[in-house]
User: Which sequence fits this backbone?
């Protein structure tokens, strides 16, 4: 009887297992990817505060509530001071939000939350989810290290313990907050997928261990962890850019009959991801598109009509949600919400940067064009050149800033400190850190310059050009991805530089994508991979010491000096900058000699620890804007702030 | 089935069961009770002595052009607390056009010495231009009746 029943279920079970294996392959790559994904959820879940951190989240949340009820326009401000929050736009008398791609992706999370809320206690749903993630994480990582039994037991005990502790101090969760929870959950999943994608990208050439290390560091030691549960576009941008990197990498690998897609399919996937990105933020998507075209087209193995047709087809298809949304809102498929007039005159963060750029080329070439071409052609040409000029304008502006105001570059990347221009917006707090201060590991990128200089010394100019040509022709997957990562990072900097420094950045969030791209760059440097391979224990122990001892020192210093948030942030900034400088110097030394390797590992551990301290202490001490998703973590946070 | 799987199934079952038991359908237990604010502001307290600060400080922040206002605690020896009276602790600095107050909830467990604190606040550098300011501190009980426990002056010293 039992046997018969077992046999009846066998095909279903086999089908389920196959579906699961496919799911893992598509989204996570391998067991390591699954573990990294779950680990990210568990880590960021520890300091997940249910609430609104920046006021333009009100815009998204209110638009999301309307969307969940089936409307694109927003009638009522469920959250916040009213509808005149940054980023609310007006079209034909109706008010609309923005980032509709992000909102649509968040819908399933809202449905899940509402469904769970009908049978389960809403205040315990998030602790339960965390507990289940912990159980799964234990089982998965136990299997990976060959200790399946211990892994299962540890995961189950940890999950249960945190759940019970949370249940003991839990408070009700107001169903009004479900949409905010859903937006945050979607952002968290995007962050976790980004970490997993970084792992997959680096695991292909260097193996699971190196890839996993990069993924873990991205979330725990850079501001990616800070923005993991803050429902803004940045986490999605990072996930999509890394997705493009990965697709581009795979498109340059030799055809593999086992792979799910042929190389040209991966190439099309890269364009498809860019197309989807328009639905999130058209400007950023254009930046990535430009970087992709500049790198992909000249280095592609072939640009025959068939592959170009596939690329164009997939790209156009991926633009459909963007075009449809724009048409529904503005009546013009090419006018995204961010280009519409602001509601209530609040200038959103997308407000245009400082004016005063070098004059355009409009008029002069215009008269030339009208003189040479027949009117119909001339009008089209001018319209196109006008569009292209508008599109390229931000990059020109960025170059102008680099040349004319290098201090903007300095305060964005090196030392932030106090800025008179920003204080009004930050309640007089100097909480906008530079890239190096917030993610000291980025400092290691300086070693890349050392590698390039060293290589340049070996070859003379003409030979270098020839070598570059031959490299370009035979660009392998990694080199193509390098080029894309570099161009993409550079263009992001150029586009956003005219607006930076700007208030409410905290960790240069516009440039969030630079952190994982920098980690990718670090791993791509041979000398630093050697450091990681030979001295990973030194790095790991320094990191652990820096987090557990250094973190306590920060708490004590902030309490003893009764430092306010601005001062505490500047303390982190100075320590982080020091660690970044040390790591930069030692990483460059490791390029020249392997005798510096142990010290480099130490500096890397320290830099990572300072990044982690900022992420964790911001989450538990400095910014408390709502109830914690895990009430047990909230109790710990209360304890820390009572010190 | 090995023991670790049993642990997994048992803990998952326990977590799901508790969440559902406390949920709206079953409702057998309610694990997420809100903090009871019942009858807040009712009752009274007898104050035996008050120890209020004579000075407060405005310190310049580290590497940031802001100032932090730090007001020391006021200690009160309280006895015979009935109900849940609210005590408001308030500082006023007319020279800065500044007031801030905090509310503290007392209940019968709090008898003895109770410290009332005002959290640190941030001031912009453009507001602080003198070396010291005069201020007033007020401690008010809002229970069944409302009465002033303490009112006095405080000197606010600015340190660079």
Assistant:
């Amino acid at each position: 009887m039992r046997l018969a029943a077992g046999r009846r279920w066998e095909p279903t079970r086999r089908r389920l297992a196959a579906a699961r294996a496919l799911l893992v392959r598509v989204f996570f790559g391998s067991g390591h990817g699954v573990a990294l994904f779950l680990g990210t959820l568990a880590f960021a879940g520890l300091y997940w505060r249910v609430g609104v951190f920046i006021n333009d989240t009100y815009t998204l949340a209110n638009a999301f509530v309307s969307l969940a009820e089936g409307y694109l326009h927003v009638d009522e401000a469920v959250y916040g001071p009213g509808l005149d929050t940054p980023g609310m736009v007006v079209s034909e008398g109706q008010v609309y939000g923005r980032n509709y791609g992000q909102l649509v992706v968040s819908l399933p999370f809202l449905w899940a939350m509402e469904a769970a809320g009908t049978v389960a206690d809403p205040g315990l749903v998030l602790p339960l989810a965390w507990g289940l993630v912990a159980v799964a994480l234990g089982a998965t990582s136990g299997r990976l290290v060959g200790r399946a039994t211990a892994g299962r037991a540890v995961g189950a005990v940890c999950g249960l313990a945190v759940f019970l502790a949370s249940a003991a101090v839990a408070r009700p969760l107001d169903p009004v907050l479900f949409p905010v929870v859903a937006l945050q959950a979607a952002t968290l999943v995007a962050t976790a997928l980004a970490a997993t994608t970084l792992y997959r990208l680096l695991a292909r050439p260097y193996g699971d261990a190196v890839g996993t290390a990069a993924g873990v560091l991205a979330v725990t030691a850079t501001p990616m962890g800070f923005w993991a549960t803050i429902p803004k576009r940045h986490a999605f941008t990072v996930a999509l850019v890394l997705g493009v990197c990965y697709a581009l990498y795979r498109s340059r690998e030799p055809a593999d009959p086992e792979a799910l897609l042929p190389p040209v399919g991966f190439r099309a996937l890269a364009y498809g991801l860019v197309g989807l990105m328009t639905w999130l933020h058209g400007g950023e998507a254009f930046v990535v598109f430009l970087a992709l075209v500049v790198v992909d087209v000249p280095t592609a193995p072939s640009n025959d009509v068939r592959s170009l047709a596939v690329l164009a087809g997939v790209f156009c298809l991926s633009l459909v949600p963007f075009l449809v949304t724009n048409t529904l809102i503005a009546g013009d498929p090419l006018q995204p919400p961010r280009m519409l007039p602001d509601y209530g005159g609040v200038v959103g963060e997308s407000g245009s940067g400082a004016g005063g750029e070098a004059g355009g080329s409009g008029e002069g070439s215009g008269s030339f064009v009208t003189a040479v071409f027949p009117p119909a052609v001339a009008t089209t040409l001018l319209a196109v050149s006008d569009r292209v000029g508008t599109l390229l304008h931000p990059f020109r502006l960025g170059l102008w800033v680099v040349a004319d105001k290098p201090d903007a570059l300095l305060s964005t990347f090196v030392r932030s400190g106090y800025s008179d221009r920003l204080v009004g917006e930050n309640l007089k707090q100097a909480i906008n850190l530079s890239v190096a201060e917030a993610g000291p590991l980025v400092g290691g990128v300086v070693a890349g310059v050392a590698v390039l200089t060293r290589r340049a010394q070996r070859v003379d100019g003409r030979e270098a050009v020839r070598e570059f040509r031959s490299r370009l022709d035979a660009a392998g997957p990694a080199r193509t991805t390098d080029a894309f990562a570099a161009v993409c990072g550079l263009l992001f900097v150029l586009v956003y530089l005219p607006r930076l420094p700007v208030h409410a950045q905290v960790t240069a969030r516009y440039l969030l994508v630079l952190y994982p791209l920098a980690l990718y760059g670090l791993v791509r440097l041979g000398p630093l991979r050697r450091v990681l391979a030979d001295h990973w224990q030194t790095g790991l122990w320094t990191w652990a010491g820096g987090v557990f001892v250094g973190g306590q020192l920060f708490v004590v210093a902030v309490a003893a000096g009764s430092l306010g948030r601005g001062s505490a942030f500047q303390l982190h900034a100075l320590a982080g900058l020091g660690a970044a400088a040390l790591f930069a110097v030692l990483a460059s030394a490791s390029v020249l000699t392997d005798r510096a390797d142990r010290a480099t590992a130490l500096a890397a551990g320290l830099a990572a620890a300072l990044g982690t301290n900022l992420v964790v202490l911001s989450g538990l001490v400095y910014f408390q804007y709502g109830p914690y998703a895990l009430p047990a973590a909230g109790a710990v946070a209360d304890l820390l702030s009572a010190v | 089935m090995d023991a670790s799987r049993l642990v997994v199934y048992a803990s998952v079952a326990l977590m799901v069961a508790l969440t559902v038991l406390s949920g709206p359908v079953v409702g057998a237990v309610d694990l997420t009770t809100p903090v009871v604010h019942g009858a807040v502001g009712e009752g009274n307290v007898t104050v035996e002595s008050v120890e209020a600060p004579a000075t407060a400080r405005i310190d310049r922040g580290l590497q940031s052009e802001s100032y932090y206002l730090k007001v020391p605690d006021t200690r009160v020896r309280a006895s015979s607390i009935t109900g849940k009276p609210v005590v408001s602790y308030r500082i006023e600095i007319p020279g800065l056009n500044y007031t801030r107050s905090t509310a503290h909830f007392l209940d019968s467990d709090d008898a003895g010495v109770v410290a009332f604190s005002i959290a640190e606040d941030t001031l912009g550098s453009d507001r602080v231009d003198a070396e010291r300011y005069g201020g007033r501190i007020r401690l008010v009980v809002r229970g069944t009746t409302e009465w002033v426990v303490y009112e006095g002056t405080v000197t606010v010293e600015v340190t660079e």
